[in-house]
Design a protein that fits this description.
787 residues; alpha/beta; Lambda Exonuclease, Chain A; Rossmann fold; Fumarase C, Chain B, domain 1; 4 domains; 8-stranded parallel sheet; 25 strands
Length: 787
């Protein structure tokens, strides 16, 4: 039986022929973005000059070789039919480096690509020979260098078949693993003795989507076990040979760790699969602060020359790769761990990471998602977070403070083009400041061409500096350089789902490109997958989340009930305290008394969530007075807590406590979701307010945008995001079947219809309370039943 393999020309050639070092002076995100723009520019120019020039020519051919059926595919930058009936295959490369030097250093690698395309074109049109053309374009001065090579088909066959044979030598290890993976997936045991209520339904729906495709939206309350209930059926579908890889994407590190641990748990239950956690560059870099080039970083030197051997070693020795494992191999072989994890991921079955590796237009994993069709399955965890994250990924902002740092840094540098670009930016921003002085946020219809030209000139000059003036490259320069690049890239998406606005003061300015509606961008990301399940404990209201997460009214939605007994949870609502901004000053003392009444009936661990730090601190003052007679362990979330401080905060929530601990935290913050305090490490939560985000200009822009569509602006901008924060805070309390806990919601707005419906969606049994005495009475009875 033939082993089937679909392979892109890029993956084949990059893996076998790319040699040398990592060098961000030549290969970086900005160069790639500018390269894409120049490609399009040159292709348009070629079309005008050559009548039969076809850009982005798709080619595919299936080779039968050594028991493999290899489908090789890709897009040639251009194909030209010449007047004499011959054909030219064009491969365009742009760079900030000297063109002759760039060609000489990379000729074998670049030729490999165009040779593959040339052979497939020869097979397509039954040609005896094809001309290969390498076209190099300078990103600095737009110079062009052209190299021509003419091949007989027999020569191309010898070259390409040699590449395929070399790839098979390596890939035999991979295909043998895939065979074992698929067999083990079918025989794998469920790693727990029993299924919780709802798990079987979630697993069944996930399996169906993995086979049939499309997107499924799931609201599964805390405690169902969403990670195993989605990963297990997705992994099982490997046995059907329908999907090739699983991408498990989530916003928080804790979610990534849980997914990785779940895969290892399945390994113990018989699964043979390779998993990897993709970690952000700044967290895994072994040479912090140094540029990514062989002159500054030993981990960049000869990286590509070592890669094949190291990958073979890693794939042969172990199956699961997290940051610690990758660091060990990176140190052993002096290789960049960030790039190593990306290259290794090509040969892994389950890839775990952040949303941006699929959805961010600059960061997404092109090695996976630049093909027209994939067999990749997506599991999108805590999907409610993706709404604001998608807005952020498709927005851009530039600050004068960052620009001024770069100006100061580059002042000693004699660089005519950069000095000109900096003057242009200064002139254009000052012009906007004079025009809109003291007018607050000013919405611009479009970015003046003089400004885009100034920023493009800055990028062009900046690339030259990164290549030739390393002494001037600092974090400040890099941060602003990439911020400008992101802004220009995002501006390409500018339409009626965006607002471009400018604001300034006497000595500062800020230029914002704000995405109002992320749904099309999320949908575009999901289209790169063969199927996806987007799940969260809180996807209510479902119309809001399904709409903004790329779905529509016909999209399938699964809502699961809580697996835990209702009698294990007591929800109280205090509707006689107003927490709106105007009334807050009157509420501090009464809220402190409510908190005391809530925690006093039972010694234990409690969290109290506030709308803001200021509100928290104001109530803390009164609670501290009460505590003089109570002896509570009162701990407070501070602004900008480090990871160590966060861990210390959570460590105060001990099992079997003998003293009551009250943690004061901010809703929507680091303790508002993603923490797992099971058993009696947390037995109660108080939520002050309805979670509404702070009123602000951008939130009001969202409101106006959706008001124009269907008069739902305030809900989309404020109410629904607030409800989600409340639901997430509530979800911290009961994490397992044995947990028992109480919840107190404080705000007069909970009596309004939309909020009452929201509470009813969380529980069918809740009670209103109107005084501290009533709270204490009801909770005393609740906890008495626990004895």
């Amino acid at each position: 039986m033939l082993k089937r393999l679909t392979l892109s020309v890029h993956n084949l050639v990059d893996f076998l022929l790319r040699k040398g070092s990592i060098d961000s002076r030549v290969f970086n995100v900005t160069a790639m973005t500018e390269g894409t723009r120049l490609h399009a520019f040159l292709q348009a120019k070629m079309k005008a000059a050559e009548d039969h020039y076809i850009a982005e020519f798709y080619l595919e051919h299936t080779f039968n070789l050594r028991g493999y059926e290899i489908t090789l595919q890709g897009r040639a930058d251009g194909v030209v039919k010449t007047l004499d009936g011959g054909y030219i295959v064009d491969e365009i490369k742009s760079t900030v480096a000297d063109l002759e030097e760039f060609h000489e250093n990379n000729e074998t690698w670049h030729l490999g690509q165009v040779q593959c395309y040339a052979l497939m074109l020869a097979y397509l049109y039954d040609l005896d020979q094809v001309t290969a053309r390498l076209t190099y374009l300078s990103q600095v001065n737009k110079d062009r260098l052209v190299k021509l090579y003419t091949y007989k088909v027999e020569q191309l066959e010898q070259i390409v078949f040699d590449l395929l044979n070399r790839y098979i030598d390596f890939y035999d290890v991979v295909i043998n693993h895939i065979t074992k993976r698929n067999e083990s997936a079918k025989l794998m045991r469920f790693p727990f003795e029993t299924l919780r209520k709802g798990q079987k339904r979630l697993a069944g729906y996930t399996y169906a989507v993995s086979k049939q495709g499309g997107s499924l939206y799931v609201e599964a309350p805390t405690g169902i076990g969403k990670t195993i209930s989605t990963l297990y059926p997705a992994v099982y579908s490997f046995s059907d040979e329908v999907i090739e890889k699983i991408f498990y994407l989530t916003a928080k590190t804790s979610g990534q760790v849980m997914a990785f641990d779940t895969v290892k748990l399945m390994n113990k239950s018989g699964l043979i699969a390779k998993s990897i956690v993709i970690t952000a560059k700044d967290k895994v870099c072994l040479n912090q602060g140094s540029p990514c080039n062989p002159d500054a970083c030993p981990f960049a030197k000869d990286y590509y020359s070592k890669l094949q051997g190291v990958l073979f070693e890693m794939l042969s020795e172990t199956n699961n790769y997290d940051a610690n494992t990758l660091e060990q191999y990176a140190l052993k072989h002096t290789m960049c761990p960030f790039e190593l994890q990306l290259d290794l991921s090509l040969f892994c079955d389950i890839i775990i990471g952040d949303y941006n590796y699929l959805f961010d237009p600059l960061v997404y994993l092109k090695r996976f998602f630049d093909t027209s069709e994939t067999n990749y399955f997506g599991l999108i965890d805590e999907a409610h977070n993706l709404v604001d994250r998608a807005r952020l990924m498709y927005s851009g902002v530039l600050y004068s403070r960052d620009f001024n740092k770069v100006k100061k840094l580059l002042r000693p540098l004699e660089h005519k083009k950069m000095k000109s670009a900096l003057r242009q930016i200064t002139t254009q921003m000052n012009k906007l400041k004079r025009e809109f002085a003291d007018k607050g946020e000013i919405i611009l219809e479009k970015l003046p061409s003089t400004i885009t030209r100034a920023f493009n000139n800055f990028i062009s000059a900046g690339q030259h500096i990164m290549r030739h003036e390393e002494d001037f490259i600092s974090d400040e320069f890099s941060d602003f350089f990439f911020a400008v690049n992101r802004f220009l890239k995002i501006y390409e998406y500018y339409d009626d789902t965006y607002v471009l606005y400018f604001k300034s003061g006497k000595s500062w300015w800020e230029l914002n490109l704000f995405n109002l509606d992320p749904k099309e961008n999320v949908a575009d990301g999901l289209s790169k997958l063969s199927g996806a399940v987007l799940f969260s404990a809180t996807l209510s209201p479902s119309d809001y989340y399904v709409n903004l997460l790329g779905g529509n009214k016909q999209s399938p939605l699964l809502k699961l009930a809580s697996p835990f007994p209702e009698e294990n949870r007591k929800i109280l609502v205090g509707p006689n305290i107003e927490t709106t901004y105007r009334k807050r000053d009157e509420s501090y003392e009464e809220i402190a008394e409510y908190i005391d009444a809530f925690v006093h009936p039972k010694v234990g661990n409690y969290l109290v969530f506030f709308p803001s730090y200021k509100y928290l601190q104001s109530v803390e003052t009164y609670l501290s007075e009460i505590n003089k007679r109570r002896d509570y362990n009162l701990i407070v979330q501070n602004r900008n807590m480090s990871k160590v401080e966060q861990d210390e905060f959570l460590a105060e929530f001990k099992l079997n406590p003998t003293q009551t601990t009250i943690g004061l935290a901010v809703m929507g913050g680091v303790f508002g979701e993603g923490i797992d305090l099971s058993e009696d490490r947390l037995i109660g939560a108080v939520v002050v307010g309805v979670g509404i985000p702070q009123i602000g200009f951008e939130r009001d822009l969202i409101k106006e945008y959706y008001d124009e569509q269907s008069n739902i602006g305030f809900n989309y901008a404020y109410t629904y995001p607030g409800m989600n924060r409340v639901a997430q805070a509530i979800g911290r309390v009961i994490r397992s079947e044995e947990d028992k806990g109480a919840i107190l919601l404080i705000d007069a707005r909970y009596t309004r219809r939309n909020y009452a419906e929201f509470i009813s969606s969380l529980t069918k049994t809740y009670e209103y309370v109107y005084s501290p005495a009533e709270i204490e009475e009801k909770l005393t009875a609740f906890w008495e039943n626990d004895r």
